[in-house]
Design a protein that fits this description.
By secondary structure, the protein is of the alpha/beta class. It has helices spanning 38-48, 61-73, 112-126, 146-156, 167-174, 185-192, 199-211, 250-260, 265-279, and strands at residues 2-5, 10-16, 30-36, 53-59, 77-82, 88-94, 100-103, 131-135, 161-164, 180-181, 196-198, 217-220, 226-230, 233-238, 299-301, 309-314. It has one domain: UDP-N-acetylmuramoyl-L-alanine:D-glutamate ligase (3-Layer(aba) Sandwich), CATH 3.40.1190. GO terms for molecular function: 1-phosphofructokinase activity.
């Protein structure tokens, strides 16, 4: 079972448009609403793969009630923590060429008591978990050290922690020894305070974060593939993508694939890349099922291409 923690969940509304013109009335050609937030997306991908998952998240108002119902419809056990504020709604506008315009709401502010209630919900549900995936930005009211506290408490309970966040929340948690962190190239560059132009730059940055406490680093490098740096060594993997339809939730699908495959080693990396490649070829924030995966197409190597330039360098 994979337990996910999403401190700032959302309802994600996606509208497909024939074009995006400011100052006009636009009519969508298709629309959908999905449960959202990075940890929630991990749970959705885990459930789509046929595994058990429990999603811990603060939920409030009618939006929170709808989020709980949508999670149940997907076979996800929702461990919602009641809060006074309303769960946020995020909007994504998709143009025919795949260009995405996202509007993300700030979300509710959590009180100290509500923040403690979320930590307690994690404790209650963690005993049966193979992994705890803590994902996304922190809502108003939670200090950057909140994830660090969650990592420390979970380790005391004997749980393994995967952390997917950025900025001060990531750096504050590093010295607590998260078992896996999952930055993208931009987040990796921000964490080490220097630009990344090559895969070798990304490898050095990942090694530096391991030196600061992270036990392993799963780095998403966009179209260039993914890099795994752990105690057993460094591995690099790529997969072909025919056409990108939406990259919303692709990184979350990757983390789900990684953890579902054991959370370490080249086989788990291959699963991560296969899940991410499948996700970007689906509409909105749909998560891939086993039928969408193409594991044989993933190329994994321990011969990391250090001089390979990143298609999207991280400044």
């Amino acid at each position: 079972m994979i337990l996910t923690v999403t401190p700032n969940p959302s309802l994600d509304r996606t509208y497909e448009l024939p074009g995006l013109t400011r100052g006009t009335v636009l009519r969508a050609t298709a629309d959908r609403v999905d449960p959202g937030g990075k940890g929630v997306n991990v749970s959705r991908a885990v459930a789509a793969a046929g595994h058990r998952t429990v999603a811990v998240a603060p939920m409030g108002g009618p939006e929170g009630a709808l989020l709980t119902r949508l999670l149940g419809d997907l076979g996800i056990e929702a461990a919602g923590v009641p809060i006074a504020g309303n769960t946020r709604i995020n909007v994504t506008l998709v143009e025919p060429d795949g260009t995405l315009t996202k509007v993300n709401a700030a979300g509710p502010e959590l009180s100290p008591a509500e923040a403690e209630d979320v930590l307690e919900a994690v404790r209650v549900h963690s005993s049966a978990a193979d992994w705890i995936a803590c994902c996304g930005s922190l809502p108003r009211g939670l200090p950057p050290q909140w994830y660090a506290e969650l990592v420390e408490r979970s380790h005391r309970a004997g749980a393994r922690i995967a952390l997917d966040t950025s900025g001060a929340a990531l750096t504050a948690a590093l010295d607590r020894g998260p078992d896996v962190i999952k930055p993208n190239a931009q987040e990796l560059a921000e964490a080490v305070g220097r630009p990344l132009a090559t895969v070798g730059d990304a490898l050095k940055a990942a090694e530096e974060l391991r030196g600061r406490g992270a036990r392993s680093v799963l780095a998403s490098l966009g179209a260039d593939g993914q890099l795994l740096v752990e105690a057993s060594g460094a591995y690099f993997a790529t997969a072909p993508v025919t056409a990108v339809r939406s990259n919303v939730g692709a990184g979350d699908a990757s983390l789900a694939g990684f953890l579902a495959a054991g959370g370490q080693g080249p086989e788990a990396l291959a699963s991560a890349v296969a899940h991410g490649a499948a996700a970007v070829q689906l509409a909105g924030s749909l998560m891939p099922t086993p039928a969408d995966l193409d594991l044989p197409s993933v190329v994994t190597t321990s011969d990391v291409p250090l001089d390979r330039a990143l298609a999207e360098p991280a400044p």
